[in-house]
Amino acid sequence: MNLKDNGISLSAQVVMELIEAVHEKNASFRFQAKGFSMTPAIRDGDVITVSPLGDVMPRRGDVVAFRHPDQPRMLVHRVLHSREKRYYIKGDNAPEGDGWIPAENILGLITKVERRGRARFWPNRATAATGAEILLIFYPLWPPVRRRLAMAWRRLRRGLARRPRP
Q1: Pair type for strands 118-120 and 47-51
Q2: What percent of the chain has pLDDT over 90?
Q3: pLDDT 10s digits, 38-96
Q4: What is the predicted pLDDT for the residue at 2?
Q5: Residue 98 CB: number of other CB atoms within 10 A?
Q6: What CA–CA distance (Å, rounded) separates 113 from 98?
Q7: Do 72 and 149 sit in the same domain of this protein?
Q8: Which of 24, 132, 143, 166 is a good FRET partner for 55, with 20 to 30 A between their CA atoms?
């Protein structure tokens, strides 16, 4: 255990044990993410919250914390496919997937991401609210829709700027 930047640096094994102990109390666990495999959704230094699964099973698009079955480390990556209580998981910015991960290796669901002290919008299926299911269905479509809206807005502004003023 090392003190570093006003924080404590813990091994992956210790963090996994802490997450499991906190989840036994039905509470969430927060820690600072390290690495770039989930960029841009989760960046190095973001504070992420891992919530217990409870009755919620991960599905396509969810970001989960999990124990890698072949390596003694914890990763936070996105579920791409599920089949018979196994999940194919890959980091958004990782060149290759992590493979099929058994359900018992899933530590929890990422329910909140904070960047520079401010919470970012993050779909949270662990505590469903009215209308949240509709939002979660369309959430993966938001980045391409946002890009197209921004392009249309720029074209509109250019077109208005070219118009002669009376």
Answers
A1: unpaired
A2: 40
A3: 988 899 999 999 999 888 889 888 999 999 988 888 999 999 999 989 999 999 989 99
A4: 45
A5: 21
A6: 22
A7: no
A8: 143
Asked if 114 and 138 sit in the same domain, the reply is no
Single-letter residue type at 48: I
Same domain for 86 and 138, yes or no, is no
Higher-confidence residue: 96 or 144? 96
> Nearest CA to 15 among 73, 62, 64?
73
Query: How many distinct structural domains can be found in the chain?
Result: 2
Locate the DSSP E strands across the chain. Answer: 2-4, 7-9, 29-32, 47-51, 63-67, 74-83, 86-90, 99-102, 106-115, 118-120
Q: 115 CB contacts (<8 Å, ≥6 apart)?
A: 43, 45, 46, 47
Q: Between the CA atoms of 38, 88, 145 and 128, what dihedral angle is there, to the nearest 10 degrees?
A: -90
Q: Are 119 and 166 contained in the same domain? A: no
Note the pLDDT of residue 153.
87
Domain check: are 64 and 98 in the same one? yes
Confidence of residue 138 (pLDDT cuts 50, 70, 90): low
- Per the structure, the complete domain to which residue 39 belongs is given by 2-127
